[in-house]
Amino acid sequence: MNYTDIIGNLEENKRKLMERLEKKDLSKEEYESVQNSINNYDYIIELTEMNHFERGFMN
User: How many Cα atoms occupy the beta-carbon half-sphere of 56 within 13 Å?
Assistant: First the structure.
């Protein structure tokens, strides 16, 4: 997989989780779990971008 594919997949997974947060039927525990997953995706995306750009790759 290349950088664009990886970032696209990560962003898509994050978007799906964000859509789940919009549902009003989530329990507090489910809400917190989804929010933690979103935070994890943000972190993974940040690491992926740092790795890509620190190696000198261009889009």
Answer: 0
